[in-house]
């Protein structure tokens, strides 16, 4: 029985190691050339595995990209939200943590944000923030209809992601702290968040 457990643990570790190598290979390749020009052979060669190993974990490169994006968003969420955090940006702190985490891994996130031809990281990030905003509004029992909530959430999430994307494209002309302060001031100025929050 113990022997079977050890074998199972070894197989699990090998699977995780292969998946990590394949994901890292795709991220490296995306930084070097357009996603559409990347082949499964390219990915397998860079990851030092065979084509069959790639296909045993992912149906195609689009499936692999989706898993990479999901993995990065999960990591981003875990890094930026504490267990007792409520909603997306009830204070500046989670927003600042998000921007700092993105800056720390700037080459990766810039690469993910640059993919235009597929369901990109930008869309996923926007969707993640949108969902958190809706949840926050539902928790605070705002007396507005569902359509208004959806429009508001889309407006805020698009603005935040758009500003982050602009920041990257301009080679990060200010610190994460200054970007957060300026973005927060704009949200306050337009009464999109409660005034005098920290």
Automatic annotation (TrEMBL):
DNA-binding region: 39-58
Every HTH tetR-type domain range: 16-76
Any one GO MF annotation of this record: DNA binding
InterPro entries, alphabetized: Homeodomain-like_sf, HTH-type_Tx_Regulator, HTH_TetR, TetR_C_Firmicutes
Gene3D superfamilies, A to Z: Tetracycline Repressor, domain 2
Record SUPFAM superfamilies: Homeodomain-like
Record keywords, A-Z: DNA-binding
Domain of life: Bacteria
Protein's recorded name: TetR family transcriptional regulator
